[in-house]
Amino acid sequence: MNNLRAVDLNLLVILDALLSERHLSRAAERLHMSQPAVSHALARLRHLLGDPLLLRGKGGFQPTARALELARPLAEALQSVRSVLGGAVFEAVTAQRVFRLAMSDYGAALILPRLLRRLRVDAPGIDLAISYASRPAVIAGVQDGEIDLALGVFPQLPEQLHRETLFEETFVCALDPASLAAGEMLSLETYLARPHVLVASSEGGMAAEVDAALAQLGQTRRIAVRVPYWTVAPDVVMGTDLILTVARRALQGSAAQGLAQYAAPFTIAPFAFEVIRHRRTDGDAGIAWLRAAIAQAAEPG
């Protein structure tokens, strides 16, 4: 593997497309190749790297752990090559630029503190303009060029928008520990009997996953309180019998101190938290740098 002359480097471009699209036909369309040609290239990549890389799942491919390890360094390496060939250069330390980002308070709480600490050191001339709106409005903003990058949950996107998964998120149930007897676990019966808090933000896909899982059991929950922001929800729960079923990372930090956290008493599908952009930015070295910085800020720890 150290002998690059023995490796068809075009395979890396194909792997990058497959990891980004996670769908054979979309990757083929992006590469202007036939599906059989891309399938053959994937077989060669599997042999070359000694790993399945992509496994068929519902709606497309699911990357293996090895593929996830490769995704970011591969994308960064290819972007560096494109910059060399195209003359596009982004010097973060001297750059003067405003990037327009869209994210909810959930995404902002998770990403912005670490991202801004890095920017103040590595890219002090970079400014961020943060906004948020409904999911359709955010998607329209990315399409129209009014938003450079958007973070969130995007079940469906127009073809010209590109998505990258920052992390897979799971759910937990948060409640006042005094509302359960000592040693008592959260049962499905208790969960259904209690009133619930719903965060009715534009990150609606999260709440939809919970209700879809209950619907499969033929059950529904009573929503007693709807709040517009993730950050206020933990305070609403304290001192009550309310239950908040929430993305696990939303309970990081001081806001969730004092709350008891339990696994949901039924299976809830995880969801992908993503960053999206328009394909017109493929050659934008500044966008590529910021995407990598956001991905680093999203890493655990």
From TrEMBL:
Keywords: DNA-binding, Transcription, Transcription regulation. InterPro entries: LysR-type_TF, LysR_HTH_N, LysR_subst-bd, WH-like_DNA-bd_sf, WH_DNA-bd_sf. Belongs to the LysR transcriptional regulatory family. This is LysR family transcriptional regulator. Gene3D superfamilies: Periplasmic binding protein-like II, Winged helix-like DNA-binding domain superfamily/Winged helix DNA-binding domain. GO terms for molecular function: DNA binding; DNA-binding transcription factor activity. Pfam families: HTH_1 (PF00126), LysR_substrate (PF03466). Residues 7-64 form the HTH lysR-type domain.
